[in-house]
Specification:
The complex is a heterodimer of chains A (325) and B (263).
Chain A: E1 2-15, E2 18-31, E3 35-39, H1 46-54, E4 61-70, E5 73-74, H2 80-86, E6 92-95, H3 109-118, H4 125-138, H5 155-166, E7 173-177, H6 185-200, E8 206-210, H7 214-220, E9 223-228, E10 231-237, H8 238-243, H9 248-255, H10 262-267, H11 297-301, E11 307-308, E12 314-315
Parallel strand pairs in A: 3-8, 3-9, 6-7, 7-8
Antiparallel strand pairs in A: 1-2, 1-4, 4-5, 9-10, 10-12, 11-12
Helix pairs in contact in A: 3-4, 5-6
Chain B: E1 3-14, E2 20-32, E3 37-41, H1 48-55, E4 63-68, E5 71-72, H2 79-88, E6 89-92, H3 107-117, H4 124-134, H5 139-142, H6 152-166, E7 170-174, H7 182-199, E8 202-207, H8 210-216, E9 219-224, E10 227-232, H9 234-239, H10 244-252
Parallel strand pairs in B: 3-8, 3-9, 6-7, 7-8
Antiparallel strand pairs in B: 1-2, 1-4, 4-5, 9-10
Helix pairs in contact in B: 3-6, 4-6, 6-7
Classes of the chains: A alpha/beta (325), B alpha/beta (263).
Chain lengths: 325, 263
């Protein structure tokens, strides 16, 4: 069953120099029970895409085109108040990149939780407390943390407390944006473990995990979507993406990964040459063509469509389109 | 031996009424030969940056000695001596943005370097363009820009271009690539290796990324709670780790072709 369906999403930033086409025609769907990893370099639009999917579209960002259907509700038509009251936290939760700073320095974690819960449900303090305690216990988090101020918590504990709070009302979809990029590897593993536990315990059903680190996605994602310059260029199962990447950009991302293991050592590490384009003026045709080793004439002229190339793999590249061959 | 650090310790005193001692670095010893690339790997709070700051002579050690070319640099006081030291030992930091003045064009960072070299006969404009090309930047594209107009990767390459001008004997690079995209990290680190190959520059690479250290170092030192708990060749550390901490660190690094148990 499809939980999230996004069609032809165009989300642009209107700035004085023009339109920054951060998300430009993305189609995406997510089945219930699946974890989708979104990968790509910084500035590729992955954060903008998840903010848009969540409904958090605030000027200068505008949803220029596209519809988002979440759990049968067309959330792209809803106004902010409706989203706040009946969608956010209940159907979908977003843990943004800056979430480590989401906690108020002067408030205890429990007060933060109360604020969040009271936006959606009129519960008594003691009900909220027992709910929070139960959930913290379920997720193997130290219940004492509820009574602490943010500065008393480690980075990893803060992140886990924020995630536990945003999933308190059992949202069907949890979106996390680079939740572990600022953390040490051992703390990262704890946060990832907790995200897995949330799904195993059916507290959440599906997850979208945004990161630039494909090795992290290997651990937790069922599917990987690769974004480049505002476009989804490849979408397939984690195994397909890792062992049989189709798009030259996906191959480039994987070849740049430096994990200490024999396969990587044998293969060597190759950085992708050049820089991602300025999205005020993206390149014509395929946006990756100026950096692509396999670029053909058609690549600078025509934009490759996202096509199914067998084995449930979608790829937008002329190497796989009829015109390219 | 280019650099020899013996029994280096740094204790910070905190608190106003009741003083508390925090031992940030405890009895660290290390040696760097000319042309050697060593990595100091540890998590945040392990003392690796404090060690680097002491070697760069940005903070004084509580005890221990730092011998550079045989001379104990902890005793340097005179301005000229310090300038001479800093023209031989150069630091590169995590956030290149912090090393720029946001109100001044990026060019200045390179022109300032000439003051360290003190070479007056050099054609400065030409030298600047040359080093920019060496680090993979196009002079036309970056010169005359302000720091915010460059990408993170470009800014860090720009800082590395300074090394190409100054040609120090030792570079201390503290998390130089952790703020730039994984897809371009190796390219920036390669610039240090190129310097090493060309001028026998030694590098101390400070990182939390065991994977990166594995691919670029001659020797890896693992630091934990202010102490070096293990040292060895990349193969020894990755394939035959001895200390419990290294083993744990290794187990926590996500791998591309192996899934963690229970995930």
């Amino acid at each position: 069953m499809v939980l999230l369906q996004a069609e032809n999403i165009r989300a642009y930033y209107f700035v004085s120099q023009g339109k920054v086409k951060a998300v430009d025609g993305v189609n995406l769907f997510l089945e219930k029970g699946m974890t989708l990893g979104l990968a790509g370099e910084s500035g590729c639009g992955k954060s903008t895409l998840v903010n848009t999917l969540f409904g958090f579209v605030k000027p200068p960002l505008h949803l220029v085109e596209g519809t988002i259907t979440l759990d049968g509700q067309k959330i792209s038509d809803m106004d902010r108040d409706t989203l706040k009251k009946s969608v956010w936290g209940v159907t979908v939760s977003l843990v943004p990149q800056s979430a480590l700073n989401a906690l108020m320095p002067t408030k205890k974690v429990l007060d933060f939780i109360k604020d969040v819960v009271l936006q959606h449900q009129a519960l008594s303090d003691s009900d909220i407390l027992s709910m929070a305690r139960k959930r913290f216990e379920e997720l193997n988090l130290d219940v004492e943390a509820l009574y602490m101020h943010p500065h008393e918590l480690s980075g990893g504990m803060k992140q886990r407390a924020v995630i536990a709070t945003s999933t308190l009302l059992n949202p069907k979809l949890l979106i996390v944006d680079e939740p572990t990029s600022a953390l040490d590897v051992s703390t990262q593993k704890q946060v990832l473990k907790m995200l897995m536990d949330l799904k195993k315990a059916s507290i959440i059903q599906s997850m979208i995990f945004v990161t630039h680190d494909i090795a992290v996605l290997r651990q937790i994602a069922d599917l990987i979507g690769v974004m480049y310059a505002g476009k989804l260029v490849e979408l397939s199962s984690t195994d397909n993406v890792l062992y049989d990447p189709k798009h030259p950009y996906t191959t480039g991302l994987i070849n740049a990964v430096v994990t200490p293991e024999p396969e990587v050592r044998r293969r060597g590490i190759v950085s992708i040459a050049g820089e991602p384009p300025n999205l005020l003026k993206p390149p014509s045709g395929c946006r990756f063509h100026p950096r692509c080793k396999f670029a053909m004439d058609i690549c600078s002229r025509e934009e490759p469509p996202l096509l199914e190339v067998g084995d449930n793999t979608l790829v937008a590249c002329h190497l796989f389109s009829s015109k390219g061959r | 031996m280019l650099l020899e650090v013996n029994n280096l310790t740094k204790i910070f005193m905190v608190g106003l009424l009741r003083k508390k001692e925090i031992v940030a670095v405890k009895g660290v010893s290390l040696q760097v030969n000319p042309g050697e690339f060593i990595s100091l790997v540890g998590e945040s709070g392990s003392g690796k940056t404090t060690t680097a700051k002491m070697i760069l002579k940005l903070i004084p050690p509580t005890s221990g000695e730092i011998l550079f070319d045989g001379k104990d640099i902890t005793k340097l006081k005179k301005h000229e001596e310090l300038r001479d030291y800093w023209s031989k030992v150069h630091g590169i930091f995590q956030d290149p943005y912090a090393s720029f003045n946001p109100l001044q064009r990026v060019d200045r960072v390179l022109y300032q370097a000439f003051e360290l070299i003190g070479d007056k006969d050099i054609d400065r404009a030409r030298a600047v363009r040359e080093v920019l090309r060496e680090v993979g930047l196009s002079p036309e594209e970056v010169l005359g820009k302000y720091p915010h107009e460059l990408s993170g990767g470009q800014r860090q390459r720009f800082m590395v271009a300074r090394c190409y001008l100054i040609k120090p004997k030792l570079i201390l690079a503290d998390e130089p690539v952790s703020m730039i995209d994984a897809s371009t990290r190796k390219g920036v680190l390669q610039l240090f290796s190129n310097l090493r190959d060309e001028y026998k520059t030694s590098v101390i690479f400070i990182t939390h990324d065991l994977g990166l250290a594995y691919y670029v170092s001659d020797e890896i030192l693992i630091m934990y709670k202010g102490v070096i708990v293990e040292r060895g060749s990349p193969e020894e550390i990755i394939e035959h780790a001895q200390s419990e901490y290294t083993k744990r660190l290794k187990a926590d690094v996500p791998l591309l072709y192996r899934k963690w148990e229970g995930f």
